Amino acid sequence: MLHRLKYLSLAAAIAMAGGCATTPDSAGPDTGLAPSYSLTNTYWKLTELDGAPVVMAPEQEREVRITLTDDGKVHGFTGCNQVMGGYTLAGTALRFTQLAGTRMACPPPLMQLESAVLANLNSVTGYRFDGEYLILLKDGAPVAKYESVYL
Fold first, then answer.
1. Strand 141-149 vs strand 93-101: parallel, antiparallel, or unpaired?
2. Bridge partner list, 93
3. Average pLDDT, the chain
């Protein structure tokens, strides 16, 4: 009986030590491991446009956002209307192509925001990450900042 208790204690100690081990799947955000976001299949919320912060207006239906899919498509919301189109990617070079949107009329501030967002997306030539932010670039200079949103 004493022999069994010795092995039972040893088995319990091994099980408890194994439960304390960390793996990449259980890593928190400050572990230095690869981020859980990527350029594609991430909900990117616009936080800054041409150096100015972007906040939702009271009459705005939802936040300005984009999502790029693995099959070269982009879709999102520009502040007034839905936007869709394509993109090309070569390393960190990024270009949005054939952007189109719904044509609903909105109050002037939202129409101005939409025009600025579309012009901005059409000017993009590259990207980089800064933490959990996607920085869109025009000829190497930041033109927009998007934050990854966990759904």
1. unpaired
2. 90, 126
3. 83
